[in-house]
From TrEMBL:
<dbReference type="InterPro" id="IPR003439">
    <property type="entry name" value="ABC_transporter-like_ATP-bd"/>
</dbReference>
<keyword id="KW-0547">Nucleotide-binding</keyword>
<protein>
    <submittedName>
        <fullName>ATP-binding cassette domain-containing protein</fullName>
    </submittedName>
</protein>
<dbReference type="InterPro" id="IPR003593">
    <property type="entry name" value="AAA+_ATPase"/>
</dbReference>
<dbReference type="GO" id="GO:0005524">
    <property type="term" value="F:ATP binding"/>
</dbReference>
<feature type="domain" description="ABC transporter">
    <location>
        <begin position="10"/>
        <end position="224"/>
    </location>
</feature>
<comment type="similarity">
    <text>Belongs to the ABC transporter superfamily.</text>
</comment>
<dbReference type="InterPro" id="IPR017871">
    <property type="entry name" value="ABC_transporter-like_CS"/>
</dbReference>
<dbReference type="InterPro" id="IPR027417">
    <property type="entry name" value="P-loop_NTPase"/>
</dbReference>
<keyword id="KW-0813">Transport</keyword>
<keyword id="KW-0067">ATP-binding</keyword>
<dbReference type="Pfam" id="PF00005">
    <property type="entry name" value="ABC_tran"/>
</dbReference>
Length: 224
């Protein structure tokens, strides 16, 4: 576990979480806590429920039973999150006719007073040209980078990423790995679902495998 900050500032407490979709049990009695500053990885084959788990944590899916608290506040989709959250769940959605900069600015001004200079800085940070090109002309990897920019541009404290390496090339994955470690070292809590255990083991402080509706700790053989 990372030791850079003594006291956790962000925590997610999951107690007896269960989710069923169309009568099929997807998550079954999961209890665990995630605390900052750490990166947690969730790995598992296609269709095991990684995305459902992340959505349940953020209140996007109705729980069959159990609870999720972020910093001791029960998640409620009708209320603001108790901490700022940056998330990529499924495909990042942007307005196709607008360029990347204007998309981020529009989203950033919903919750905060993000400036052009802030947006420029985050575009540079994620390796995107800050130009007039509309998002409709972006490659999939560029859209993924723009999604990552959106998830970090407001200094979000809890970062939740579903398959963030999708469509990224080798250089993009290396950049993302470095970025996520930096965010962790700044004291943030990062949760990542990925099918790529080898990649998760290069950056996660703790990795879990989701099988049969439950999360099992994978002991990090690289640190053993
Ligand atoms: N809206 C939905 N309607 C019906 N079934 C759903 C829905 N969302 C998820 N499921 C089902 O829940 C299960 C878990 O899906 P989920 O997307 O969480 O898997 P995953 O582990 O993220 O998979 P992948 O690696 O392919 O993204 C799957 O069987 C899926 O078909």
């Amino acid at each position: 576990m990372s030791q850079s900050v003594d006291k956790p500032k962000i925590r997610v407490d999951i107690v007896h979480l269960a989710v069923s979709i169309k009568r099929k049990k997807i998550l079954d009695d999961i209890s665990l806590s995630f605390v900052s500053p750490n990166i947690y990885g969730i790995v598992g084959p296609n269709g095991t429920g990684k995305s459902v788990f992340l959505k349940a944590l953020l209140g996007f899916i109705r729980l069959a039973s159990g609870s999720v608290k972020i910093n001791d506040v029960q998640i409620d989709p009708r209320r603001d999150f108790p901490v700022s959250v940056g998330a990529i769940i499924e495909h990042p959605g942007f307005i196709n006719d607008m360029n990347g900069h204007d998309n981020l600015l529009a989203l950033g001004q919903i919750r905060s007073d993000l400036t052009d200079a802030d947006v420029h800085a985050v575009m540079v940070k994620v390796g995107l040209p800050d130009d007039k090109k509309p998002v409709s002309d972006y490659s999939l990897g560029m859209i993924q980078r723009l999604g990552i920019a959106q998830a970090i541009m407001e200094d979000q404290q809890l970062i939740v990423l579903d398959e963030p390496t999708n469509a990224l090339d080798r250089e993009g994955i290396a950049f993302l790995t470095k970025l996520l470690k930096e965010l962790r070292d700044q004291g943030k809590l990062v949760l990542i679902a990925s099918h790529d255990l080898l990649w998760l083991q290069t950056l996660a402080d703790q990795t879990f495998e989701l099988t049969h509706g439950q999360l099992h700790k994978i002991e990090d053989v690289m640190q053993a």
